[in-house]
Write a structure and sequence with these properties.
seven-stranded mixed beta sheet, single chain, two-stranded antiparallel ribbon, 2 domains, alpha+beta, 32% strand
Length: 185
């Protein structure tokens, strides 16, 4: 039997179409979970849902430390610049590393009020004016003092919180000069 080229191409094309259709039918009958294998999808109650990859774990970042100098004492400090950082302060922390502090930067000098809400340890508050001099020191502010507030005798633009008795043991006094050269821009 002799089939011309055109007829042979027609038969081959028909066989290809039938094979593809048969393959499609068999694939349509597979369970949904197998069809979605390898895709970023999941099947829930027969409905295809987009899979959301798990969130990366939250790793607390260590705060960036700067150094300031009060008199002859170098102090590594974290800086509270934003309103949120200022409101949080040292609240809810278990402790502060022994020779470090938290420095609050304000735009203008004022008699800012600080309290010990949600504090877990006592602190010294060192009040520094816009001329970079210590203008007051609140020693050993106790968490039990809340809701009492603490403020300086004179306006301050920068406030340094340290562990209790830091100022006394490091001989920091009212009138000492403060060097912010490694912080202020």
């Amino acid at each position: 039997m002799h089939i011309d080229k055109q007829a042979r191409n027609f038969i081959v094309s028909g066989l290809v179409i039938v094979s593809v259709f048969a393959l499609w039918l068999s694939f349509a009958k597979l369970p949904d979970t197998i069809k979605s294998f390898g895709k970023k999808q999941a099947v829930i109650n027969g409905n295809v849902q987009k899979q959301i990859p798990p969130a990366p774990p939250i790793v607390p970042q260590k705060p960036l430390l700067y150094k300031i100098r009060i008199g002859t004492v170098d102090i590594p400090v974290e800086v509270a610049e934003t309103q949120k950082e200022k409101e949080q302060g040292l609240s809810m922390r278990e402790s502060l590393p022994q020779d470090q502090g938290l420095l609050f930067l304000f735009d203008v000098p004022a008699r800012y009020q600080f309290w010990m809400k949600d504090m877990k340890f006592s602190i010294d508050i060192i009040w520094i004016d816009s001329g970079q001099k210590v203008v007051d020191i609140t020693e050993n502010a106790d968490p039990a003092s809340y809701p009492q507030t603490f403020s300086p005798q004179l306006p301050a633009q920068y406030i340094l919180e340290t562990n209790a008795f830091f100022a006394k043991t490091r001989s920091i006094h009212i009138g000492d000069s403060v060097d912010f050269s490694k912080i202020l821009r």
